[in-house]
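Weekly modeling sync, notes
Attendees: AB, CL, MP (scribe)

Item 1: holo prediction request
CL wants a bound-state model with WT7 before deciding which constructs to order. AB pointed out that an apo prediction alone won't tell us much about the pocket. Agreed to run with the ligand included and paste results into these notes for async review.

Input as submitted:
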Amino acid sequence: MSETIENLFQEERSFPPPEALASRANARPRIHQEAAADPQAFWVEEAKKLQWKQPWDQVLDDSEAPFYRWFVGGTLNVTESCLDRHVAANPDRIAFHWEGEPGDSRSITYGELLAEVCRTANALKKMEVGKGDTVAIYMGMVPEIVVAMLACARIGAAHSVVFGGFSADSLRERIDDCACKAVITQDGSWRRGSVFPLKKNVDDSLIGQQTVKNVLVLRRGENPVDWQEGRDHWWHEVVPEMSDICEPEEMDAEDLLFILYTSGSTGKPKGIVHTCGGYLTGVSSTFRNVFDIKDDDLYWCTADCGWVTGHSYIVYGPLANNATSLIYEGTPDHPQQDRWWKLIEKYGVTILYTAPTAIRTFMKWGESLPGGCDLTSLRLLGSVGEPINPEAWMWYHEHIGQQQCPIVDTWWQTETGSIMITPLPGITTTKPGSATTPYPGIDAHVVDDDGNRVERGHGGILVIDSPWPSMLRGIHGDPERYKEVYWSRFEGTYFPGDGCKIDEDGYLWLLGRIDDVMLISGHNISTTEVESALVDHASVAEAAVVGRADDRTGQAIAAFVVLRGSEVGHDELIVELRKHVANKIGPIAKPASIVFTPDLPKTRSGKIMRRLLKDISEKRKLGDVTTLANADIVEAIRDGATDPAGEDH
Ligand code: WT7
């Protein structure tokens, strides 16, 4: 019988936690063991660190699994844990330093943030938005996007943040799906030196739309906009008039906090549902322990609030912990490719949380850019969104972390709400490319096709065997799809859809989506391991591989490679790269073809779209491209891919 997924890549390097960090880390040394002994007791202890109005009378109700309920009977308003209690202690502590792309900046205290949240909440109330309603938020990374989210939470309305780079059609689909009553937007947002017309897209999305009665518009881009009297309201005219007191709506722990759509590579986007009590417990606990936040830290998560990373680790997790964060509005290459490093230097950022796609882009741009800035304030680095190839991990460690900073590679999903598999920086010895072990209280395992746990040293499918507080509560409006997608692969177990292997030390190595696994001559090979072997070569910054149909081997590996710096691809390099992969992980994984490309097709959140590369490799018409961020690259790759160079050397 063949392995569910082969284990090919062996990584020998490891990095123990720095002594200074370990000795004063937030996470107790025995936290994993204690939580394993009684997971519910662990979550109760974490939940008690929040501000509740009424205590719960049952920790977990599993009587209608997989429709689990946490902290049953408890009530709270998440904004009290995030704002009021900190304002009572010290209203002048900075919540956010914000820098606009053009270079303007603001600093906002917890006191100011609470006042603006209340004013905005009152403005929403005046528009007859209240508990049970849903508000679409379609903005860029301005402080007011955080205000808008919290204002909804204050009055018990759910927010549905739609990434500000999505089209009018995508916005419309999401507005309709949850029947939004209002939209909060901007005239335009700054991106790479120009203004993206958000309000125009909102106008287009609302043509013939019935449920949206009001649109609140922040002025930012100062671009001209059309105006519909009665429906449209300027933020600067409405919000400052409002009272800065707004009593927080008392919410059941299981009341809706937000809906967030995941693209899903095919089919209608899924509206992932998160509720108040369990979600805040999960994000608050993980933020404190994984990022080891201290009073004097300056934390920067580079995500956008349009993704779950922004919800959990820009807004709710940091604010619940009274953190001070940096928010940056624009792209990393404006006005120059060293903007991020300049920001770290200017603000003295101590904790940086970003994505492998960004790290590999910086590898491509070269280390002299971060090398030209003072990054010594950094003490901890994080990664999320995709498997981080060991060589990208090492680059991050050396050129950003200056070999001083632990890296927390955090595995989780929109659906999981908070971080699930991760090092704890004062406890865990890290290995480049491994997300290491489950967070305390999380019951993650690797199983084979039949659902049996695999032995150490083997690959298989990741599963979560017990519910956890911040888990999704469903797909909006589609309970059957919820059961089918997440709970039907193995009875009673959550199925995230990712491949994973477990090494001899019990460390977990995420291997990419199960759907992307390649079947080469009867061997199941993960995309991640072949890509990591390619990125291991000194000339390579980034790689994507797919299995394309092949008469002889079933599938053959087609590789797409982005080179570092100014390197150019040539035939000898193709031979060398194939040899490199064979040496690193074995001849079975040698790509049959290699195409050099300046970039890879990616989703707007930066994930490689292997499905499109497969379409190109099999010379098919391209499938759904609506979630593609960089459309032009597909044509460029297609031209390159039809060039036979590199085919079966
Ligand atoms: C999928 C979830 C979680 C916030 C951002 C993405 C992949 C995420 C890692 C990681 C390997 C990772 C998985 C997962 N993924 N983090 N550290 N190592 N893979 O949220 O858009 O819901 O995507 O991203 O495939 O299932 P998302």
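Recorded for review: Residues 262, 307-309, 384-387, 409-414, 435, 496, 498, 510, 513, 605 surround WT7 (CB under 6 Å).
Action items: CL to compare against the apo run; MP to circulate these notes.
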